[in-house]
Amino acid sequence: MSKRVVMTGNETVAEAVRQINPDVVAAYPITPSTAVVEYISQYVADGLIDTEFVTAESEHSALSACIGAAAGGGRVMNATSAQGLALMWEMLYIASAMRLPMILAVVNRALSGPINIHGDHSDTMGARDCGWIQLYSENCQEVYDNMLQAVRISEHIDVRTPVIVALDGFITSHAIDTLETERDEDVKRFIGDYITLNSILDTKNVVTYGAIDFQDYYFEHKRQQLEGLHKSAEIIKSVGEEFGRTFGREYGFFEGYKLDDAEYAIVAMNSAAGTIKTVIDDLREEGVKAGLLKLRVFRPFPAAEIAEALKTMKVVAILDRTSTAGAQGGPLFSEIRSALYSESSRPGIVNYIYGLGGKDLTPEHIRYVYDTLRRIDRTGKIDRLVDYLNLREEGGQD
Amino acid sequence: MKTWKELPLGGIIKDVGNTKDYITGTWRTERPVFLEDKCTQCFMCCMVCPDSAVIIKDEKVIGFNYNHCKGCGICAVECLSKPKAIEMEQEEQF
Ligand code: SF4
Ligand code: SF4
Question: How confident is the model at residue A190 (pLDDT cuts 50, 70, 90)?
């Protein structure tokens, strides 16, 4: 029996944490994820959860405390944004290399500089090679559902890899949305008990974490670390299916919106998907076969599945909410273009950088993208492989 | 040596203390030489050695473990005996 509730994204993260009732939350608040940490500390103070809440003096320390607690055999959670995630960088790699399950809710925010507090994906995209699983969420419902599934994915015996659950700063974290939450006991049953493995607190079976590792074993350990990410793909899939059977909302690597028969597709992550769907509905009424591939799982990257879904399209636009940083395009673009390379027939493909520092993405911008895709299809000509949406410049679309 | 599939998860070490099997003495350019007759058994060298390479037997310092002593010379500087009971010598002499 689910309950229809009204919450902000931050409150949704905290509600999932309340129901999960982790052993340890070590966190340092930062905009726009501050409210997550505030809610959790309130729940602890009110005795709603018996979590050990550690107020760290920095995000680096917060994640370090989480790593220690996870190595000690606890179910561990944390939340951050932008500079906070950047300050955790060193420890992100260490958490994943130690194969420690934990969940980090990242409320996406632009990395400085220039200094900015609004939403874009530069923080989690920068952390894409840290060895963490990354799940993205369009709205509060997906935030809630991803949080619960992340527990099962991260702690699975074949995975034992930390998970980032990402949601857009302000648009999702602060806007009030309706969603269905499940009963505490049903959530408890779904997530199951934590399986402690190689705890540093087990004095009968003493283990060392974080020992030095040179030419003799470092490479082997890195290869082994990858295996957790590789195997997580099938676990993400099976947990998503089980979640569907249990709560009626099934999840996969991505959601296709009117994608099967589409000719022109946009690929995007997080809250932009809502705006894109609205435009697709309008375009469909006008007879334009527009579709969306909304990516949920960025790491591990489901390359084969995405290629399969996109190979029949005529032209595809990849929307990246981060700078290209001198690469051939945004990270999503580079991944997808590469994924399509081994297909015998490939769609035309272009990249749009959008929404940096919280810049608006309106239906007009989406419509402009679909118009461009149709023009590319008509003329066979791509003027700009990588372009910018809603950027003031001469000759720009705005 | 083990393949990546045979290693314990996450680079953990289950046979704790296996550092003793990891020989680092070959990194040394100078070695501490123990002069037993000058030693007052103050144990300062044991406390300051960063590699736990001072050998103690029957509550007495008897020399250095050259498999792990990296030759940093801290023990020789800190030795409280006068004259000192530790001298640093060029490694190639041995
Ligand atoms: S030289 Fe350095 S490593 Fe060697 S015994 Fe003395 S203090 Fe220890
Ligand atoms: S510091 Fe010098 S005197 Fe003291 S125990 Fe060591 S060698 Fe002997």
Answer: very high
Same domain, residue pair A286 and A230:
no
Max CA pair span of chain B: 55
Q: Mind listing the domains of chain B with CATH numbers?
A: 35-94 (3.30.70.20)
Above 0.90 for ipTM, yes or no? no
Q: What is the CATH number of the domain that holds A162?
A: 3.40.50.970
Q: Are residues A8 and A103 in the same domain?
A: yes
Q: Give the tens place of pLDDT for each residue, A288-299.
A: 999 999 999 999
Residues of B at the A interface, defined by Cβ within 8 angstroms: 1-5, 7-14, 16
How much is the pLDDT for A229? 98
Structural domain count, chain A:
2
Considering only CA atoms, which of A64, A110, A106 is closest in space to residue A85? A106
Instruction: Assess whether the C-beta atom of B55 lies below 6 angstroms from ligand 2.
Output: no
Residue A395: CB atoms within 10 A of its CB come to 6
Domain's final residue, options A200, A216, A247 = A247
DSSP assigned state of B8: P
Please report the atom of ligand 1 found closest to the CA of residue B48: 7
> Contact, A98 vs B12, CB < 8 A?
yes
The DSSP bridge pattern shows strands A133-137 and A163-168 to be: parallel
Q: Is the pLDDT of residue A270 over 90?
A: yes
| Whether A259 and A241 share a structural domain | no
Instruction: For residue A256, list its beta bridge partners.
Output: A293
Smallest Cα–Cα separation from A121: which of A171, A162, A76, A87? Answer: A171
